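Good morning C.,

I know you're traveling, so I'll keep this short. The sequence:
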Amino acid sequence: MKIGPKVYWRKTSGEVIFMTPQIESESARETTKEDDMSFYPQLKGYDSEQLDVLKLEFDQYTEDFTRAKSYIVNPDTGKMEFSYVDSGGKTELEYQTPLTDQVNELKTRQDSTEAALLALMDKS
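The tokens, ready to paste straight into the viewer:
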């Protein structure tokens, strides 16, 4: 069974407090927020009402986590955002949609554009 990581983050700021490891094992089982908060020392002492959890798929955003300088969960959308490069002397990090999502969106748009072009060429 493959179980993706869970991202625990502050509801007010989006700050990531802790990420559970992803697991690939026959004996693996899904855990609850309460299970994780009592098991992981990094989550002890936090009020569960102040934290939210984002469940990721196995290997989701692995490349983004490797390449990113920093990451948060956007408190308005509940989705991951990453900061990849030095912001050119700016003191505040700029967060954006994961690059893997951006690439997938571009592939979808390209396929759609190619299909439209082929349809137009068939009409001529």
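Safe travels,
E.
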